[in-house]
Design a protein that fits this description.
Blueprint lengths: L13 E9 L4 H11 L7 E7 L4 E7 L2 H4 L3 H6 L4 E9 L12 E5 L2 E11 L2 H10 L11 H8 L6 H9 L4 E9 L2 E6 L8 E5 L2 E5 L3 H4 L4 E5 L5 E5 L2 E5 L9 E2 L1 H6 L5 E2 L2 E2 H15 L6 E4 L5 H11 L7 E3 L12 H11 E3 L8 E6 L6 H12 L4 E6 L21 H4 L2 H8 L3 E4 L2 H7 L12 E2 L1 H4 L7 H4 L17
Parallel strand pairs: 14-23, 17-20, 20-21, 21-22
Antiparallel strand pairs: 1-4, 1-10, 2-3, 2-4, 5-6, 6-7, 7-8, 8-12, 9-10, 9-11, 12-13, 15-16, 18-19
Helix pairs in contact: 5-6, 9-10, 9-15, 11-12
Bound molecules: adenosine monophosphate.
The site of adenosine monophosphate (AMP) has 18 residues, from helix 12.
């Protein structure tokens, strides 16, 4: 029996951002800036690995990028012209330094660093097999199976080993690796998580979102295609297609919440998409009201769209204290509740005696909505109507966005009417799935061939959930609780 349960509970679901730069005189500083722009994708830990032509330099830290990678002394130690970095958020107290990425390993070909955004859905299965073959895991991350699959691969080159490893994994991944004077970027065949290519001077950059290009003055070149591997080396940029083409299923939740609004994803401005979602929501679920108030910050663009379409004035009726981390990110329910109070305050004059429409991007456990509605009522609102710029979140994500287990999701437990009662709203409405697709410039959800991954709203999981669906006890001496990932 293994003493640790690496896939236990909510622990391993991660939200992450990745960054890589090749051929830059200040690779570490550039990586730190890029990670700073990606901080919204993960706030618990960060890491940078650089290569100076001979040696690798590694720095991992718990906490935010600005607190750990802004000093000259730290950056100066990370010498080299190539570097990759990672920001990470994992849901529990088990966030330990050994899980911080980029992971680093010594292969027979030399050093290898790997940063991953996404989640592998057969990591547990593979890990079990690898442990039986004698692999000694150093972390509890799903990402580490890729390193061991590469180490045990038949062929020699970095690229071949990586391809061989990735052909065995299932799941969502945008990866950036550093090896043998190359920076390598790969996106899973469905392209669930984002990855873009940029250019600054003679250097190329790979990163999760375009906002990380903007911060370093890099130009956007293009999205890395689903199933594409990009290699940056001294001879330029190379594109490989090691996987069979598949129907793309980009994560629609990136548009709703996860990405930064100033990023452009798959050809769409995230900000514009959010505004259009708000407009569509206003068309679908109009309400007679005096004021549209966003739940800051994530509800702001959708609320602007809702106000524009409905003609009802938009006001900042709730003010957010920016010096508190994202509510959702606090690990316990108790702290989460406290977090909401610390984070938001009612702007009374905008609320008193008014019929208020609150716009937020999603309801997960309902914690935020309950607190905000109570606060708005205490500030004297006559009516409080909640409008949500996503369909009800009824299923857990297994592809890299943190969600609690299905049983904790309000929309899994309750009907919309019951949810309205639970959060204390006079009315509650969510955008429809077709409305959401329209807002991201599709005619609607083509049920036979959906264009996005929307599993959190529909339960239609485009990548098999092998770990979740495989019974744990297989008679072997190593057991994991596979169920724990759900
Ligand atoms: P809850 O309070 O549990 O209902 O969570 C909903 C709030 O958390 C909304 O205000 C969202 O902006 C935010 N949120 C939704 N999904 C996530 C996520 N995956 N990570 C962090 N925050 C989230």
């Amino acid at each position: 029996m293994l003493t640790t349960h690496p896939f236990d509970d909510d622990k391993l679901r991660e939200e992450c951002g990745v960054f890589g730069v090749y051929n830059h005189g200040e690779a570490a500083a550039v990586a730190a800036l890029g990670l700073h722009a990606l901080q919204h994708r993960g706030q618990e830990a960060a890491g940078i690995v650089t290569f100076d032509g001979e040696h690798y330099h590694i720095q991992h830290a718990m906490g935010q990028v600005g607190d750990n990678f802004s000093s000259q002394s730290v950056i100066a130690k990370l010498r080299g012209h190539a570097g990759i970095g990672h920001v990470r958020y994992a849901t529990s107290g088990d966030t330990v330094l050994r899980n911080v990425q980029p992971l680093f390993a010594d292969f027979e070909f030399g050093g290898f660093a790997l940063a991953h955004n996404g989640n592998l859905t057969n990591a547990l299965m593979l890990r079990r097999q690898l442990v039986r073959r004698g692999c000694l895991f150093q972390s509890t991350t799903d990402t580490e199976v890729i390193v061991h699959l590469m180490a045990t691969a038949r062929s020699g080159s970095v690229i071949d080993r990586m391809v061989e490893a990735l052909r065995q994994v299932e799941g969502a991944y945008s990866l950036i690796a550093l090896a043998k004077d190359m920076v390598i970027g790969v996106r899973d065949p469905l392209g669930v998580r984002p990855l873009v290519l940029g250019k600054v001077g003679d250097s190329h950059v790979l990163c999760s979102e375009t906002c990380a290009l903007d911060i370093i003055g890099a130009d956007f070149v293009r999205d890395v295609e689903p199933g594409e591997m990009i290699v940056l080396d001294s001879s330029g940029v190379h594109s490989l297609r090691p996987f069979l083409p598949q129907h793309r299923r980009f994560c629609i939740f990136e548009y709703i919440y996860f990405a930064r609004p100033d990023s452009v994803m798959e050809g769409h401005s995230v900000y514009e998409a959010r505004k259009r979602i708000g407009m569509e929501l206003a068309r679908e679920s109009a309400v007679d009201a005096d004021v549209i108030i966003p739940v800051p910050d994530s509800g702001v663009p959708a609320a602007i769209g809702y106000a524009a379409e409905s003609g009802i004035p938009f006001e900042l009726g709730i003010i957010r204290n920016h010096y508190v981390g994202r509510t959702f990110i606090e690990p316990t329910d108790q702290i989460r509740n406290l977090g909401v109070k610390l984070k938001h305050n009612a702007n009374r004059l905008m609320i008193e005696d008014k019929r208020v429409v609150l716009v937020d991007d999603s309801i997960v456990r309902g914690t935020t909505s309950i607190k905000i509605i109570e606060m708005v009522r205490r500030a004297g609102a006559k009516e409080v109507h909640m409008r949500i710029s996503s369909p009800p979140t009824s299923h857990a994500c297994f592809y890299g966005v943190d969600t609690p287990k299905k049983e904790k999701l309000l929309a899994h437990k309750y009907s919309i009417d019951e949810m309205a009662k639970y959060i204390g709203a006079d009315s509650l409405a969510f955008i429809s799935i077709d409305g959401l697709y329209k807002a991201v410039k599709e005619p609607g959800r083509n049920n036979a061939r959906p264009q996005y991954c929307d599993a959190c709203f529909t339960g239609d999981y485009p990548i098999p959930l092998l770990d979740r669906d495989t019974p744990a006890g297989d008679g072997s001496e190593i057991t994991y609780r596979a169920e724990a990932r759900g």
